[in-house]
Design goal:
It contains 14 helices and 21 strands. The protein is an alpha/beta fold. The strands form 6 sheets. A 7-stranded mixed β-sheet has the order 12-13-16-11-19-17-18. It has a 5-stranded parallel β-sheet with strand order 5-4-3-9-21, with helices on one face. It has a 3-stranded antiparallel β-sheet with strand order 6-7-8. α4 links the parallel β3 and β4. The longest helix is centred in the middle third of the chain and has 18 residues. InterPro entries: FAD-binding_protein (IPR028348), FAD-depend_C (IPR049516), FAD/NAD-bd_sf (IPR036188).
Length: 556
């Protein structure tokens, strides 16, 4: 809001304005209006020579890097971080190869359809792997904790608009695209990268890094439909941007074999709760719920965001957990959505939620998750830095066993979960299309997680009466809220601290938690790498601001 104009209209507003305290992403004072541009317009250096404002050398006409000497960069993964790193590097003149183990969105959609209808899981093309990353078939949320009004975030948002997103995402308090809007956006993004000369290879799995004297010199790739190592191809590069998602567990194993510096990271696990959407509308809007009309009325479909702190019964002593509390919160709340399968292995079962842009389904779902950290991974410490990955796998396998196989999800009425009893009556309807099975979800997790969830649900019901009801259904299991590890890198250059030439970015590397923060991380990495490759000579912070420190741990 323009404070001066507001006070001219209503001087008494000063009483409210004076009490506002600056908070990144919520309340930010701007001495002058900022008009960040989209990246394509910002980096379009069609004129010959040098762009003094941004410090961009025009490599397209060969004035700095002749065509045959362009630096060669591999970007592994076509999620938000990989796409934006490719965009920046491609615009600045690098020879970029974007490698994606999954399929383009068109084929990926068909593979997901086959999973939902015929229970056929393509291990390399599913809800986690494929063009656009895991967020494509999730909910398309564009919320972030790194400051929506920061120049970096605004540049990413305006780039989405450039590629076809509706302009209202620039002003909505809770911007949301929906899977149906993300698909054509990604198609446009891909087309632009192709025009820049970026080579895009789908169905291409990176099996290994080629390392010489502590520096990455290239990669070994193979057809992802074949066994790892079958028909391997060696590709040489000057730098490798590692932009994989948090489910690329085979990549984590490969990095561990190269002694890349990796450390376990806190994340969250839990269950996904589903209510009738009309119930959530009624809880949130009361008598105004009739104004929703399945998203076509005057009020948007109701959602919620919850964070609770609960006592930690798993703390053995004060040294183990000084605060003796855990955070329990809603994650990826999908109003008018559905519960979907996000497994990448038939022997494991994990779920998520998704919504289309209209949010018109009759269900509302959200994960309710509890924070876990290295202390909780002790039973898996033999796996070293990948202990968090094994922690996830343990409960995904338990969930698969509880469901009885064939991707059937274990489920329980929330009232029965609170009472530690099996749901013996018919379960409420579920949006999950592959079937649910009455199960003892209260026995799936260790007591410290189960009791934290139970305490939180009771606390939520006090604030939202009706939340704890027989119509609410819990589904198991939600484990992939964020990366279970972090790959160490230098703060300014984004280069791995233990392997030169490797640039870990985004959610899979432990530096983002959602579409926006991953895209921003990839964008800043693109500029940092371009600077090292002498493609960019300016100061990124002078026009996009300082990159916000990423923890890779998100609550939304």
């Amino acid at each position: 809001m323009d404070v001066k104009k507001l006070l001219d209209v209503e001087p008494r507003a000063w009483d409210f304005i004076a009490r506002l305290e600056p908070k990144l992403g919520a309340v930010e004072y701007m001495p002058k209006e900022k008009l960040a541009s989209d990246l394509v317009s910002m980096l379009n250096v069609s004129n010959k020579g040098y762009n003094n404002e941004l410090g961009i050398s025009d490599t397209h006409n060969g004035s700095v890097c002749p065509q045959d000497k362009k630096p060669r960069v591999a970007v592994i993964g076509s999620g938000p971080s990989g796409l934006f790193a490719s965009l920046v590097l491609g615009e600045l003149g690098a020879e970029v190869s974007l490698l994606e183990r999954g399929q383009p969105v068109e084929q990926r959609g068909r593979d997901i359809g086959a999973l939902a209808v015929r229970r056929i899981l393509q291990t390399e093309s599913n809800f986690c792997f494929g063009e656009g990353g895991a967020g494509t078939w999730s909910d398309g949320k564009l919320v972030t904790r790194i400051g929506k009004n920061t120049d970096g975030v605004q540049a990413v948002m305006k780039t989405f608009v450039h590629f076809g997103a509706p302009r209202n995402i620039l002003v909505d308090g809770k911007p949301h695209l929906g899977t149906d809007k993300l698909v054509p956006l990604l198609r446009n993004f891909r087309h632009h990268l192709g025009e820049l000369g970026v080579t895009i290879r789908f169905n291409t799995r990176v099996d290994d890094l080629i390392v010489e004297d502590g520096q990455v010199k290239g990669i070994m790739v193979s057809d992802s439909q074949l066994l790892p190592g079958s028909g391997s191809q060696k590709l040489s590069f000057d730098a490798v941007v590692l932009a994989v998602g948090h489910s690329a567990r085979d990549t984590y194993n490969m990095l561990q074999q190269h002694n890349v510096d990796i450390s376990p990271k806190s994340f969250a696990v839990g269950l996904r709760i589903e209510h009738p959407q009309e119930l959530i509308n009624s809880i949130q809007y009361s008598e105004l719920a009739t104004e929703v009309q399945k998203g076509r009325g005057r009020l948007p479909v109701a959602d919620y965001k919850i964070v609770k702190s609960v006592s930690d019964i798993g703390a053995e002593n004060e040294l183990d957990n000084a605060e003796k509390s855990r955070s329990c919160y809603s994650f990826c709340m999908c109003p008018g959505g559905q519960v979907v399968l996000t497994s990448t292995d038939p022997s494991e079962l994990c779920i998520n939620g998704m919504s289309f842009s209209r949010r018109a389904s009759k269900w509302a779902n959200s994960a309710l998750v509890v924070t876990v950290s290295a202390h909780d991974f002790k039973p898996f410490e033999s796996h070293g830095s990948l202990a968090g990955v094994e922690f996830q796998r343990e409960f995904e396998r338990r969930a698969a066993t509880m469901g009885g196989g064939n991707f059937v999800v274990p489920a329980q009425r929330v009232t029965d979960f609170i009472s530690n009893r099996l749901s013996v009556t018919t379960l409420p309807p579920s949006s999950y299309r592959l079937g649910v099975r009455p199960s003892k979800l209260h026995e799936l997790f260790p007591p410290y997680i189960t009791e934290a969830l139970q305490q939180s649900i009771i606390m939520i019901d006090r604030e939202m009466p009706g939340f704890l009801c027989s119509e609410a259904l819990l589904h198991g299991v939600e484990t992939r809220t964020s990366s279970p590890l972090q790959i160490s890198r230098h703060g300014e250059t984004y280069e791995s601290t233990s392997l030169r030439g490797l640039y870990p970015v985004g959610e899979g590397a432990g530096y983002a938690g959602g579409i926006l923060s991953a895209a921003v991380d990839g964008m800043y990495c693109g500029f940092a790498l371009a600077k090292q490759l002498s493609l960019f000579h300016g100061d990124i912070e002078s026009f996009l601001g300082k990159a916000q420190k990423q923890t890779g741990f998100v609550k939304y």
